[in-house]
Amino acid sequence: MKMTKIYIVGTVGSGKSTFAHHLSMKYSIPHFELDNVVYDGSRKRTEVERDQLFNEILIQKDWVIEDVGRSCFQAGLKQADKVIYLNISPRILKRRIVKRYLLQKCGLEKANYAPTLVMLNQMLEWCQKDIDKRELFIEQLKSHSNQFISLNEHELRDFTL
């Protein structure tokens, strides 16, 4: 397969990490969660540290990057061969966020943050903000790539490059 750079974007609970991991394994492409570029555990990296790590990812031959669409990572969108937006229904997003919280609270799923009710509420608020501005965000993503793909929860299962 030729050089492949895939940038996956979606709100919290959309399945970005799961989908990116799936593509990474299926096509033997390294996968990067940009939350881990922004944060080192619970410590937020400096802009210099963040940008250095991000640029180290971008110079690689192949990558699958997943993020919520932070503006500091626009260069990745511009370099991507494909930009994939996970366009998941609001009902499913909110159900996934609550399910993740419960699994993390019970210790059945790893958390990069303390699974508190405050954090659950914050994630639900972020999700709603993303839902409210979804159409505008999709138009912005389309402007970065002529290889823009929007996938709903049903289309994810059958997606191939």
Outline the secondary-structure elements.
Blueprint: E1 5-9, H1 16-27, E2 31-33, H2 35-38, E3 39-40, E4 43-44, H3 47-58, E5 63-67, H4 74-79, E6 82-86, H5 90-105, H6 117-132, H7 134-142, E7 148-151
Describe this structure in words.
The chain has a domain at 5-88 and 134-151: P-loop containing nucleotide triphosphate hydrolases (Rossmann fold). Strands 2-5-1-6-7 form a 5-stranded parallel beta sheet, sandwiched between helices. It is globular. It has 161 residues and is α/β, with parallel strands linked by helices. Helices cover 47% and strands 16% of the residues.
Please write the CATH class name of the domain at 5-88 and 134-151: Alpha Beta
Rg estimate, integer Å: 16 Å
Record field, number of beta strands: 7
Order of helices and strands: EHEHEEHEHEHHHE
Order of strands in the sheet with the most strands? 2-5-1-6-7
- The CATH homologous superfamily of the domain at 5-88 and 134-151: P-loop containing nucleotide triphosphate hydrolases
> Helix- and strand-based class?
alpha/beta
- Which oligomerization state do the chains in this entry correspond to? single chain
Brief characterization of the structure:
This protein is of the alpha/beta class and 161 residues long. 47% of the residues lie in helices and 16% in strands. The protein is globular.
List keywords for this structure.
about 160 residues, alpha/beta, Rossmann fold, 5-stranded parallel beta sheet, two-stranded antiparallel sheet, 7 helices, globular
